[in-house]
Specification:
It contains 13 helices and no strands. By secondary structure, the protein is mostly helical. α1 packs across α2 and α8 (about 155-175) runs parallel beside α12. The longest helix is centred in the last third of the chain and has 28 residues, at about 210-235.
Length: about 325
């Protein structure tokens, strides 16, 4: 599935770029994996990424009317038609959604997540965190599942897990950058100090003691992510053969970010982790394990207890 972050900063030239070019420039981990998808699937995946990138850039941009534009895009997705300044991007996505039978409720929830980010994040508990991860990344996994023509009835559940896992990794990786923007995605129930709960902007110059407490919370984030990665890894067996290897590579490369954070003792104040090209090739070789025959997996419903009522989530 597509990683949601980094779909980061606004660039006004993006609407003029081809989908594959946007994926190559801003979604390096998935772009690397897309080489193994084949031309048709890679092109469709890039179109989905282009739309997700567009709305994320808008959400993180500096336009005065960006909230209004996000709300208008949300309405366009509800109406399945659009007539305003963002028509080109939306109509292109709607055409892809029609071609691939992408549930528009997933795209609407993605917009809802982007709109929620206009208020600096302050999560109280794990349930709020997981529902946010579903909104901004689980939905992308769900949409990608349709892009890759997955037909198994349980495929959506595993695809959502991969999106959630990737977003938890993003949050763990970007704690410093988010704190600089006064955002705190780590639930307050995970933190003990009042000042850590309410003023993330103060984390940037935090004392060693405070940094250690934040590092402990990052470890908790990555441990939670591992549960969803484990599920998503099993679910790859439900994908069409043509896309299994690519998604396995994407999973391994993104998972590596968290593992490098662990190796660095969760030193989040040193900046984000980047997976080297050499390491990506190592992980690609390991990704060949996807061709080993496996039993059809059963999804762990416990992973979705906090997500009941959201797009693609089985309520039974």
């Amino acid at each position: 599935m597509l990683p949601n972050k980094p779909l980061t900063r606004h660039e006004s030239s993006i609407p003029e770029m081809k989908p594959i070019a946007i994926l190559a420039k801003h979604g390096k981990s998935f772009y690397f994996a897309s080489f193994f998808l084949g031309n048709d699937y890679a092109a469709s995946a890039a179109k989905l990424y282009k739309f997700c990138r567009f709305v994320d850039d808008l959400a993180d941009g500096t336009e005065i009317n960006k909230i209004e534009r996000l709300q208008n895009i949300f309405l366009c997705l509800q109406r399945e038609t659009c007539q305003h300044e963002d028509t080109l991007e939306i109509e292109s996505f709607l055409a892809l959604a029609k071609e691939k039978n992408i549930p528009l409720i997933a795209a609407q929830e993605l917009l809802g997540g982007m709109i929620s980010d206009q208020t600096p994040a302050r999560f109280d508990n794990t349930k709020q965190l997981l529902r946010y991860c579903h909104a901004v990344a689980g939905t992308v996994g769900l949409m990608m599942c349709h892009v890759l023509d997955c037909s198994h009835k349980d495929a959506n559940s595993f695809a959502i897990d991969l999106g959630v896992a990737m977003q938890l990794t993003n949050i763990a990786r970007d704690v410093l950058e988010d704190a600089q923007m006064d955002r705190r995605y780590i639930p307050s129930e995970w933190l003990n100090l009042t000042e850590l709960q309410s003023e993330p902007s103060g984390w940037v110059d935090a004392s060693i003691d405070k940094r250690t407490k934040i590092s402990s919370a990052i470890e908790q984030l990555l441990n939670l992510a591992e549960k969803y990665y484990g599920s998503a890894e099993q679910g790859i067996a439900l994908l069409p053969w043509k896309s299994r290897f690519a998604i396995n590579v994407a999973l391994r490369v993104y998972r590596q970010i968290g593992r490098q954070l662990k190796e660095k003792k969760y030193c989040w104040w040193q900046g984000r982790q980047i997976v080297s090209v050499f390491k990506k090739f190592q992980l690609t070789i390991l990704g060949l394990s996807v061709f080993i025959p496996k039993k059809t997996p059963t999804h762990q419903r416990k992973l979705h207890e906090s997500l009941i009522g959201l797009a693609g989530v089985d309520s039974h």
